Amino acid sequence: MADIAIIMGSISDWATMEKAATILTEFGLDFDKKIVSAHRTPDLMFDFASTAYANGYKLIIAGAGGAAHLPGMVAAIATVPVIGVPIESHALSGVDSLYSIVQMPAGVPVATMAIGEAGAKNAALYAVEMLAMNQPDLHAKLIAYRANAADKVAASEAGLY
Ligand SMILES: Nc1c(C(=O)O)ncn1[C@@H]1O[C@H](COP(=O)(O)O)[C@@H](O)[C@H]1O
């Protein structure tokens, strides 16, 4: 069983959430990916969240858009950290998703990322950082990732004119 589950409210979220998947793959991390909706598949959502710990998940990355209740509802049921990704919605540009995910009541945390692809990428990196706390090999990959990112910034200076 994978350490990480990437879940999302709809297939339409995958274009965003695949950015998280790509980063986890770069780090050699196994993950499951599922479409689970608090609104459209509430029984499935309850089943997924209530068995997440027993199924071995250490982290859940949950993307949802609009009335984005999925991350918070999963966090309410599961005893596994939930990282929320607000999907950039058409009507309100993802501000609705952000507010829905971030404004959790005290007692039920969701680690909320930025709207859209940056949020999906950061969700994956946050997951890597959490798992790297007791995995030295993964920590070494994180150091290398950071160094590579810095190199890219330095190289991009060549584009200044
Ligand atoms: N926010 C939620 C939930 C939920 O929170 O349970 N289920 C679906 N959705 C969102 O509805 C948006 C539109 O979905 P469709 O594109 O399928 O109409 C998606 O961004 C999805 O995350």
From TrEMBL:
Signal peptide: none annotated. PANTHER family: PHOSPHORIBOSYLAMINOIMIDAZOLE CARBOXYLASE, PHOSPHORIBOSYLAMINOIMIDAZOLE CARBOXYLASE CATALYTIC SUBUNIT. Pfam families: AIRC (PF00731). It catalyses: 5-carboxyamino-1-(5-phospho-D-ribosyl)imidazole + H(+) = 5-amino-1-(5-phospho-D-ribosyl)imidazole-4-carboxylate. Belongs to the AIR carboxylase family. Class I subfamily. The lineage of its organism: Bacteria, Bacillati, Bacillota, Bacilli, Lactobacillales. Substrate binds at S10, D13, R40. SMART domains: AIRC. Pathway: Purine metabolism; IMP biosynthesis via de novo pathway; 5-amino-1-(5-phospho-D-ribosyl)imidazole-4-carboxylate from 5-amino-1-(5-phospho-D-ribosyl)imidazole (N5-CAIR route): step 2/2. Keywords: Isomerase, Purine biosynthesis. InterPro entries: PurE_ClassI, PurE_dom, PurE_prokaryotes. Residues 2-153 form the PurE domain. Catalyzes the conversion of N5-carboxyaminoimidazole ribonucleotide (N5-CAIR) to 4-carboxy-5-aminoimidazole ribonucleotide (CAIR). One of its GO terms (molecular function) is 5-(carboxyamino)imidazole ribonucleotide mutase activity. GO terms for biological process: 'de novo' IMP biosynthetic process. This is N5-carboxyaminoimidazole ribonucleotide mutase. Its EC number is 5.4.99.18.
